[in-house]
């Protein structure tokens, strides 16, 4: 079986170009005409390739690298082996991302999975839909009446765009995704299997049965939002569900109706956010965090993995635990429990 290359380099920059793109500092006398053919990790990088060190845990691998050049923080520059050019960067991870994006632009957002140019004849586009020039629609996709889609956007195979949906320019909608009752900004990425705009989970509970509450709001995804595979974002019940610009949402996340998420938040896999909760800007929720409804999570707050949040979190604080509490209180609780366990001695058989 042959070994395919899924991402072919679109550029082969010189070290001089890498320095220009990243703002890194090269050592005096370095040959900046060296051509970079790709990006690889420390242990796999070879001649012609660029690597980086950002986490000190991998410092031992730095001494063994055979890369042409390595982006490193200043404190590790002297550890770069002979034959590898040390490019000192304040943020090596961001620097290598900038270079990799230029070498492998196709990896930045999903493109047509069928090599389609324009609208595939085997897609179904309603005659009342409006597509700007330059929209790509893969086979099997369905676009409903009065939907509007901006130029440069790619609609993947078997994706469904509902009636009256608005999708901006240079977006990607992955295969089998559904987008209904939604307004989507520019440069938004929706990965495969994403569900946007379906009913929120709303019922008027009662002993005689649960009466369904009509969900008449929308989902608003602002510019530069990215939503991971198989994530679901429910539309609002009586107001919009909103995700602010630049927010990045991982795979397998559930966001309930009326939720408002600020700008540049990071929502990690398997997080669940219940209805009508508000997150400020730059909030981070780690994996499997669960947030109850009608809460306010302040700007810059961080929620630890597997945490159960049942109270508001002030801006800038770190909370974790079940139930979640401020980090200092949770650390104190865990230390106390360990001391009590030691005093009690080993458990009886």
TrEMBL record:
Entry keywords, A to Z:
Acyltransferase, Lipid A biosynthesis, Lipid biosynthesis, Lipid metabolism, Repeat, Transferase
InterPro entries (alphabetical): Hexapep, Hexapep_transf_CS, LpxD, Trimer_LpxA-like_sf, UDP_GlcNAc_AcTrfase_non-rep
Gene symbol here is lpxD
Q: Which family does the similarity line name?
A: Belongs to the transferase hexapeptide repeat family. LpxD subfamily.
Note the PROSITE patterns from the entry. Answer: HEXAPEP_TRANSFERASES
**Where do the catalytic residues lie?**
257 (proton acceptor)
Q: What Pfam families does UniProt report for this protein, alphabetically?
A: Hexapep, LpxD
Catalytic reaction annotation: a UDP-3-O-[(3R)-3-hydroxyacyl]-alpha-D-glucosamine + a (3R)-hydroxyacyl-[ACP] = a UDP-2-N,3-O-bis[(3R)-3-hydroxyacyl]-alpha-D-glucosamine + holo-[ACP] + H(+)
Q: What does this protein do?
A: Catalyzes the N-acylation of UDP-3-O-acylglucosamine using 3-hydroxyacyl-ACP as the acyl donor. Is involved in the biosynthesis of lipid A, a phosphorylated glycolipid that anchors the lipopolysaccharide to the outer membrane of the cell.
Q: What is this protein called?
A: UDP-3-O-acylglucosamine N-acyltransferase
Which Gene Ontology MF annotations are present?
N-acyltransferase activity; UDP-3-O-[(3R)-3-hydroxyacyl]-glucosamine N-acyltransferase activity
Q: What class of enzyme is it?
A: transferase
**Transferase: present as a keyword of the record?**
yes
Enzyme Commission number(s): 2.3.1.191
Describe its assembly: Homotrimer.
CDD domains recorded for this chain?
A: LbH_LpxD
Name the GO cellular-component terms: membrane
């Amino acid at each position: 079986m042959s070994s395919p290359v899924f991402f072919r380099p679109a550029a082969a920059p010189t070290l001089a170009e890498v320095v220009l793109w990243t703002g890194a500092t090269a050592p005096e006398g370095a040959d900046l005409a060296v051509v970079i053919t790709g990006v690889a990790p420390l242990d796999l990088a070879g001649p012609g390739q660029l690597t980086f060190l950002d986490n000190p845990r991998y410092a031992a691998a730095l001494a063994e690298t055979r890369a042409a050049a390595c982006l490193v923080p200043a404190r590790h520059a002297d550890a770069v082996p002979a034959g590898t050019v040390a490019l000192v960067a304040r943020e090596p991870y961001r620097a290598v991302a900038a270079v990799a994006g230029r070498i492998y632009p196709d990896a930045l957002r999903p493109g047509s999975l069928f090599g389609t140019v324009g609208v595939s004849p085997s897609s179904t586009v309603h005659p009342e839909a409006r597509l700007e020039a330059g929209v790509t629609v893969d086979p099997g996709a369905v676009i409903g009446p009065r939907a509007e889609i901006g130029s440069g956007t790619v609609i993947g195979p078997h994706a469904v765009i509902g009636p009256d949906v608005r999708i901006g320019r240079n977006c990607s909608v992955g295969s089998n995704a559904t987008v209904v009752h939604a307004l989507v900004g520019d440069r938004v990425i929706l990965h495969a299997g994403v569900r946007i705009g379906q009913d929120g989970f709303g019922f008027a509970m009662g002993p005689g049965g649960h009466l369904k509450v009509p969900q008449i709001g929308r989902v608003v995804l602002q510019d530069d939002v990215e939503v991971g595979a198989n994530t679901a974002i429910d539309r609002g019940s009586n107001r919009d569900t909103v995700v602010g610009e630049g927010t990045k949402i991982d795979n397998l996340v559930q966001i309930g109706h009326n939720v408002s998420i600020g700008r540049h938040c990071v929502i990690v896999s398997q997080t669940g956010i219940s209805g009508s909760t508000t997150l400020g800007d730059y909030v981070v929720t780690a994996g499997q965090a669960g947030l109850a409804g009608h809460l306010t999570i302040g700007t810059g707050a961080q929620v630890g993995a597997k945490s159960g949040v049942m109270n508001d979190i002030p801006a800038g604080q770190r909370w974790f635990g079940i139930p979640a509490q401020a980090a200092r209180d949770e650390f104190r609780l865990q230390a106390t429990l360990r001391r009590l366990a030691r005093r009690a001695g080993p458990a009886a058989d």
